[in-house]
């Protein structure tokens, strides 16, 4: 109830802030110094957009964790151009405004009701890094240093992905250090409820994830950032997005199933998990209505072929994952343990890669409520799961893919980086190359409105399509 009230009040506050001038006119108002800027409402609004990351469907289909039952175009890579404008005009602009209001000497005193200036700035920087990391892992080069300036710059230049990653790692390091637990915590925070230590640990955890992502192209910077972040303290519990049992903040998978039943466990994932007797499969997928147990849906087939399969004979996304108030993961301890296993394998940390690998699987089992000591011991003893230094990256790649279920953007990024699991393209692929996408193309508005900067980015990065590899994807 506390989070519900904070969410509602935050949104109402933001609404009041945006409409106050229309209601009361400009009488006694300094347009350059708002009398009551409610940055808590801006923060709540930005955090609501985290749902569009953790609840994304297309990336889950790219990672072949699910298949479509009725309309299979997304899993056959029909869409080429994807829109990033809503991120810039929505959460990123909100977060930039928080930073500006807490930095400007004329306004920083007015926003203290939403937390200390330093803590508000730090949280906004961390969330900006989170969103920009997701965006650059989708598109590569992006408007970054010249972005978020509003009417001062409607045609921002693009920065290279290498520059963006370097700056994101710097931002996370500085933001973690900027947090001051001795001053007022942030208000309007539906993710950590103002727990500044959790924000610091999230910044370090995200920095570890991003450092590992660039390990093939910038190994020294990757190692330095990873070990610094790890030594600073990371999350010890799963970080989940708190959906509610009401329509304004409901689980997006619940909303999708209100209109049509169209997402089932893929044969790719099922056929890996089933022979291993993986107990998570019974959480990931429901049994069929026809009573045939868990039956997967073939991945990437044509609409006609999909339509020939009876709805009652396939297993849809597990009900526990798509209840109206079911939480979805933002970043999990399993994800971090797999990262530590890889770091140990690389020699970055003097710890056991096998121990972290096993802890990662255990954490995933516990996350989905299927852990028993006997069941876990039997699972990890199987040859296809048991640790091997020689096959460490492959072991991590497969088990991490399973553990990242519904964390589509992260699962897709790690598949591109590690090249595990071995995924075959959709059998009825609609894109020209017939290959699994390794990026998404820029929105057509950039080509048409920000033409010169768009063309410069394309000339550096490569063709604006689904097949151009990103800077960090070198394998």
Concise summary:
With 475 residues, the chain is mainly alpha-helical.
How would the blueprint of this fold be written?
Blueprint: H1 2-24, H2 39-48, H3 50-54, H4 58-62, E1 66-68, H5 85-103, H6 117-139, E2 142-143, E3 158-159, H7 161-178, H8 196-213, H9 219-231, E4 239-241, H10 252-259, E5 263-265, H11 267-273, H12 281-284, H13 303-307, E6 328-331, H14 333-346, H15 353-367, H16 373-380, H17 392-403, H18 408-418, H19 444-449, H20 451-461
Care to describe what's here?
Keywords: Lipoprotein, Signal. It comes from Algoriphagus aestuariicola. This is SusD/RagB family nutrient-binding outer membrane lipoprotein. With about 475 residues, the protein is mainly α. The chain has one domain: Alpha Horseshoe (Serine Threonine Protein Phosphatase 5, Tetratricopeptide repeat), CATH 1.25.40.390. It has 20 helices and 6 strands. The protein has helices at about 1-25, 40-50, 50-55, 60, 85-105, 115-140, 160-180, 195-215, 220-230, 250-260, 265-275, 280-285, 305, 335-345, 355-365, 375-380, 390-405, 410-420, 445-450, 450-460; strands at about 65-70, 140-145, 160, 240, 265, 330. The strands form 3 sheets. It has a two-stranded antiparallel sheet with strand order 1-5. The protein has a two-stranded antiparallel ribbon with strand order 2-3. A two-stranded antiparallel ribbon has the order 4-6. Helix 2 packs antiparallel against helix 5 (about 85-105), helix 14 (about 335-345) runs antiparallel to helix 15 and helix 15 packs parallel to helix 17 (about 390-405). It is globular and about 65 Å long.
